[in-house]
Amino acid sequence: MIRCHGLEFCKVLVIALICDFKYDLSLNGVFIMVAYLPILVFVLFALVVSVVLMLAGFILSPSRPSPAKCAAYECGFPALSNTRQPFDVRFYLVAIVFLLFDLETAFLFPWALNFRSYGIMGLMSMLMFVLVLLCGYVYEWKKGALNWE
Q: Beta partners for 26?
């Protein structure tokens, strides 16, 4: 483990990044794993680029609002009624139920690729998972969340 402070820390950091050393660097008791530094650099670069592009769009774009630009767009036709009407709650309920079951069934794909390596315990655990999923589906069906009336 290398312990260094101030300018020494920067020198060791640059050397470690260039030479791909796998040492932990320490600065006042805070440990930085050198293997994760490229990820940190990438995240910082992405943040800087996104902020710069958003500011450039805000500063350089012309802002000339007109009644036509501020009007709600409904497939090329004039608005028939007020566009600020609330949605029916059923849209949200169906969306939540869809996401719930869609994400749960997405867990079946990794299991299906490796089901032979899991053995009988993997099969039993997936059967329990599908049973819980089926119970949730039956519950939603009985409660009427899937009915559109």
A: 3, 31
- What is the Cα–Cα distance from 39 to 43, expressed in whole angstroms? 6
Partnered with residue 31 across adjacent β-strands are 26
User: 26 in helix, strand or coil?
Assistant: strand
How many angstroms separate the CA atoms of 31 and 35, rounded?
12
Two tokens, residue 79 = 């608005």
- pLDDT by residue (tens digit) across 15-63? 666 655 555 555 554 455 666 778 888 999 999 999 999 999 999 988 8
Do 36 and 17 form a contact (C-beta atoms < 8 A)?
Answer: no
Q: Could you tell me the sign of the dihedral formed by the alpha carbons of 36, 40, 45, 47, in that order?
A: positive
pLDDT in tens, 86-116: 767 777 878 888 888 888 888 888 888 888 8
Closest CA to 30 of 54, 56, 5: 5
The overall pTM is greater than 0.70: no
Cβ-contact 113, 106 below 8 angstroms: no
Contact 4, 12 (CB under 8 A): yes
Under DSSP, the state recorded for 114 is: S
